[in-house]
C-alpha cells in the first residue's frame, strides 16, 4: 500500500470525525457519527488484512490501528456518559 500525504490526511480526518463532530457543522446526526465510526473500523480491518498478506506497510497499519483505537475509546466514553445520565435520571424523585 502506497502511503501518500492525501491518504494520511484522509485517515486523520476519519479518526477526527469519529472522535468529535466537525467544528463547522455545530450538530451532527447520530447516523452520520455511526457511519463514520463504521468507516474507521472497516479501514482498520482492511489495513490489518492487507498487512497480513504483505500488501500494506507497517506505518499504515500502525496509523489505522491508532485511529481505530481512538474511535473505540470515544464510543466507550460516550456510552459511559449516556449510562451515567440514565442512572441519574432514574435516581430523580417523581
Order of helices and strands: HHH
- The dominant shape is elongated
Class by helix and strand content? mainly alpha
Low-confidence segments: none
Q: State Rg.
A: 17 Å
**Largest β sheet strand count, sense and barrel closure:** none
Individual helix count: 3
What percentage of amino acids are in beta strands? Answer: under 5%
What distance lies between the first and last C-alpha atoms, to the nearest angstrom?
A: 59 Å
Could you explain the architecture of this structure?
The protein is mostly helical. The chain has one domain (5-91). It contains three helices and no strands. Helix 1 crosses helix 2, helix 1 (5-19) runs parallel beside helix 3 and helix 2 packs antiparallel against helix 3. The mean pLDDT is 83. Keywords: Bacterial flagellum, Cell projection, Cilium, Flagellum. InterPro entries: FliE (IPR001624). This is Flagellar hook-basal body protein FliE. GO terms for molecular function: cytoskeletal motor activity; structural molecule activity.
What labels would you give this structure?
94 residues, mainly alpha, 3 helices, 0% strand, elongated
Topology:
Blueprint lengths: L4 H15 L10 H23 L5 H34 L3
Helix pairs in contact: 1-2, 1-3, 2-3
Amino acid at each position: 500500500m502506497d502511503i501518500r500525504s492525501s491518504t494520511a490526511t484522509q485517515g486523520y480526518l476519519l479518526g477526527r470525525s469519529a472522535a468529535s463532530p466537525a467544528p463547522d457543522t455545530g450538530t451532527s446526526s447520530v447516523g452520520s457519527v455511526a457511519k463514520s465510526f463504521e468507516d474507521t473500523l472497516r479501514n482498520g480491518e482492511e489495513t490489518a488484512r492487507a498487512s497480513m498478506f504483505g500488501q500494506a506497510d507497517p506505518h499504515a497499519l500502525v496509523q489505522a490501528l491508532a485511529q481505530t483505537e481512538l474511535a473505540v475509546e470515544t464510543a466507550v466514553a460516550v456510552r459511559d456518559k449516556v449510562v451515567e445520565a440514565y442512572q441519574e435520571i432514574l435516581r430523580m424523585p417523581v
